[in-house]
Amino acid sequence: MMSRKKNKPKYISYSKLKQYFDDFRLSIRLVSFEVRKSNVGTAIGLLWVVLQPMLFLGTYYFLFVIILEVQYDGPGGSIGHLISMFSGLIPWLFFNNSLSRGINTLTIYSQLIKSINFPVYILPFVNIAQSMIELSLNLILILVLSLSVGVLSWSIFILIPVTLIFSIFLISLTSILACYNVMLPDLSRIIPTLLRIGIYITPVLYAPSSLPSKIKFIAYFNPISYFITPFRYAFLNDEFACIFGIEGDLIICSLLSIITCVIAYMHRSYFKKVVIDYL
């Protein structure tokens, strides 16, 4: 009677672990390099990360609240309106900056990819890590503002899962678009244009509940809406900030993230076979 061969458990070898560790250290160096490069020659450095959304916020607040007198039905009065706009603008800038930089990562690092055994898979992570630093600084700013007016509650902890979900979505999305941008460079011109339009058709400067019923479909069919609304809910703890309630919005953005991640995973072989030839 033949004995059955038992499958031995597979372990990660020491060389593989060392490779992952080296790739992690390389990622840290690249993030540090990109952050320094983006602020080289400026007088205030990383403070631009905070100053940029403040300038945006001041402009939009003056236009929408003071000039157009847009109504606000959420908590906190005029300060709550400011927090509502700020908590929508911060994740939008995270999305905008990640996408704008991410689609060009393969072309920027094309020489490294072609000349050495470069771990291409780390590039989307480097891009999102850079944007995450900017997001963290801005979240600290809005946390201080919310704390000063006493609107913080337990809902603030929603920031942890939604930031993780949003990051996974952006890593997957930018890795896909970066591949197609190599073959179709027009994408690097189309995407910024779409982003400029997107800030107005996404509930960034307003809550979905403030939209007239005739055009609410704009928020419902815009996938980025479901990543923005949990950030607003985290600071204001009110269902007016959501589309289908906080549970529904979190489920939808999680599903969007999973679907995008699966598509990106399926693109691995396509990148190796086709995209690399265009670099």
Order of helices and strands: HHHHHHHHHHHH
Shape: globular
Number of helices: 12
Relative helix content? 55-70%
Radius of gyration: 21 Å
Biggest sheet overview: none
Q: Quick check: average pLDDT?
A: 80
Number of distinct beta strands:
0
C-alpha end-to-end distance: 57 Å
Low-pLDDT segments: none
Please provide a written account of the structure:
With 279 residues, this protein is an all-alpha fold. It has one domain. The protein is built from twelve helices and no strands. The chain has helices at residues 14-38, 47-67, 77-102, 105-108, 110-115, 123-149, 159-183, 187-201, 217-220, 225-236, 245-266, 268-273. The longest helix is centred in the middle third of the chain and has 27 residues, at 123-149. The mean pLDDT is 80.
What is the topological layout?
Elements: H1 14-38, H2 47-67, H3 77-102, H4 105-108, H5 110-115, H6 123-149, H7 159-183, H8 187-201, H9 217-220, H10 225-236, H11 245-266, H12 268-273
Helix pairs in contact: 1-6, 2-3, 3-6, 3-7, 3-8, 3-10, 6-7, 7-10, 7-11, 10-11
Give the structure's gist in a few sentences.
The protein is mostly helical and 279 residues long. It has 12 helices and no strands.
Structure keywords:
mainly alpha; globular
